[in-house]
């Protein structure tokens, strides 16, 4: 069965100039949100966007172990997207799946990770949403490596989630499946958004609830179903995550709260960042949300009003609060392993990749370096290359610079790989300007060589020129894609 175009035949394509935003859609026009109109995608298009659903493109935190896997993808218009691939059993009825997706595609808001498409071909069921480059709340709360999430940012997360839920409630999307820290993601500006995937029923009867049962709403444990009030309970569990910086079962948290041991609940890394009254108010709100009787829980309007009183640094942007780089533009193209290593300045990985790649991209120089040893000059050149490569392999970068410099002077044909390796050696020797010069020389040797652009990006990052570094990463990725397409054809 092909994609069910009959269900979305009246929806405009994002490339259709006649597509008009809907100003009544929650007070936010699609144009203002810069979100393309919902459409159906072909399976081949999404397979290409995810490199054949490659495991390297998986962004789900539980990787391929998750029953429904989320991939990063790049569409032909260079838009990065998240593609959720459902398990074979989740949606046996393709018509029902598309109808549900189309309805969800109409729910748009600046606090949601908006749904922009779907696909139902054969037994495949896929959703396409905006791509969020700065990971999940779970990552920033439980697995941070640079700094813990600041108190003010945690309050902002609570407020933004409440905004998203209140909008969904107004759009008659009152049930949210499995709200937890994995469902909150951070966009290119560092602003927290609620994943729209949780608004989609993820089984044939909407019964599934993937988190640990200790965190499930009491009514779900009793009946096996979620109801609109269940999302408030789950919101309370997220508040506990924000307050404590770790997973605490609601029953344990309620015991601490009732025993007036609120300080035992708080994340110790937040010491000095908040007023005790503010922490108490957020704890009290969590307690209200976690009531076992659904009628005792507040509604989304109450959540919004309560958390709004705790927002103190509204003028400070999220990326500043989170300590993210100011230039956080989303890459328009996907990076190779070398590009990724250069983007995150992982010098060990860059060294390993350069070693494994060798001289295979450097065709002209490789021929020059490997022809028959028939003169003393050629023998000396080959020995110099050999000693340079050994020093580079053994991370003796000072010696590598010396040998490669001799080789550059001796070689009748310049070698892009030699320049690239010397560039990296200069970087490891703290000489970023010389590294940039050599990376540019490598580009002169092979004008569209992605490695040359990636190494320039690395050197520019070391020089503090982040915007230029980002441009070089983009150029390298563009030439990478061009090269791959030429190989396929």
UniProtKB/TrEMBL annotation:
One of its GO terms (cellular component) is plasma membrane. Keywords: ATP-binding, Brassinosteroid signaling pathway, Cell membrane, Kinase, Lipoprotein, Membrane, Myristate, Nucleotide-binding, Serine/threonine-protein kinase, Transferase. GO terms for molecular function: ATP binding; protein serine/threonine kinase activity. Residues 1-12 have a biased composition (Polar residues). It is found in: Cell membrane. It is a lipid-anchor. It catalyses: L-seryl-[protein] + ATP = O-phospho-L-seryl-[protein] + ADP + H(+); L-threonyl-[protein] + ATP = O-phospho-L-threonyl-[protein] + ADP + H(+). Its EC number is 2.7.11.1. Gene3D superfamilies: Phosphorylase Kinase, domain 1, Tetratricopeptide repeat domain, Transferase(Phosphotransferase) domain 1. GO terms for biological process: brassinosteroid mediated signaling pathway. It is an enzyme of class 2 (transferase). PROSITE patterns: PROTEIN_KINASE_DOM (PS50011). Residues 1-30 are annotated as: Disordered. Belongs to the protein kinase superfamily. Ser/Thr protein kinase family. This is non-specific serine/threonine protein kinase. It comes from Juglans regia.
């Amino acid at each position: 069965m092909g994609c069910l175009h009959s269900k979305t035949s009246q929806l405009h394509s994002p490339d259709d100039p006649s597509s008009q935003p809907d100003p009544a859609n929650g007070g936010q026009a699609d144009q203002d949100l810069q979100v393309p109109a919902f459409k159906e995608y072909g399976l081949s298009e999404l397979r290409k966007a995810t490199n054949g659903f490659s495991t390297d493109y998986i962004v789900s935190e539980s990787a391929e172990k998750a029953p429904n896997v989320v991939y990063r993808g790049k569409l032909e218009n260079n838009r990065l997207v998240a593609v959720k691939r459902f398990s074979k059993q989740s949606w046996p009825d393709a018509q029902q799946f598309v109808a549900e997706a189309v309805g969800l595609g109409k729910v748009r808001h600046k606090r949601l990770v908006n749904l922009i498409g779907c696909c139902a071909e054969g037994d495949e069921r896929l959703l396409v949403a905006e791509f969020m480059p700065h990971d999940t709340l779970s990552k920033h709360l439980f697995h941070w490596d640079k700094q813990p999430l600041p108190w003010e940012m945690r309050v902002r997360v609570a407020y933004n989630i409440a905004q998203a839920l209140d909008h969904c409630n107004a759009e008659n999307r009152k049930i949210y499946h499995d709200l937890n820290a994995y469902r909150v993601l951070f966009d290119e500006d560092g602003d927290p958004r609620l994943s729209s995937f949780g608004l989609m029923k993820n089984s044939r009867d909407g019964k599934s609830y993937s988190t640990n049962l200790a965190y499930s709403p009491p009514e779900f444990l009793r009946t096996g179903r979620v109801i609109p009030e269940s999302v408030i309970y789950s919101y309370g569990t997220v508040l506990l995550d924000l307050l404590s910086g770790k997973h605490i079962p609601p029953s344990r948290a309620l015991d601490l709260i009732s025993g007036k041991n609120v300080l035992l609940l708080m994340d110790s890394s937040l010491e000095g960042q908040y007023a005790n009254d503010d922490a108490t108010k957020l704890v009290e709100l969590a307690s209200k949300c976690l009531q076992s009787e659904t009628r005792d829980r507040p509604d989304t309007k109450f959540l919004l009003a309560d958390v709004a009183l705790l927002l103190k640094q509204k003028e400070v942007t999220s990326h500043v609060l989170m300590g993210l780089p100011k230039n956080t533009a989303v890459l328009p193209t996907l990076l190779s392993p070398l590009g990724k290593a250069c983007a995150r300045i992982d010098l060990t990985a860059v060294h390993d990749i350069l070693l494994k790649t060798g001289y295979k991209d450097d065709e002209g120089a490789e021929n020059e370096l490997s022809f028959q040893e028939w003169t003393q000059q050629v023998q000396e050149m080959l020995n110099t290359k050999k000693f340079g490569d050994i020093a580079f392999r053994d991370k003796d970068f000072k010696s590598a610079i010396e040998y490669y410099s001799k080789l550059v002077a001796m070689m009748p044909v310049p070698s892009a790989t030699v320049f690239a390796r010397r560039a990296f050696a200069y970087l490891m020797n703290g000489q970023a300007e010389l590294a940039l010069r050599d990376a540019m020389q490598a580009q002169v040797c092979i004008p569209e060589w992605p490695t040359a652009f990636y190494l320039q990006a690395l050197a520019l990052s070391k020089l503090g020129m982040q915007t230029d570094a980002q441009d070089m990463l983009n150029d390298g990725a563009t030439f990478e894609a061009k090269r791959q397409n030429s190989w396929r054809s």
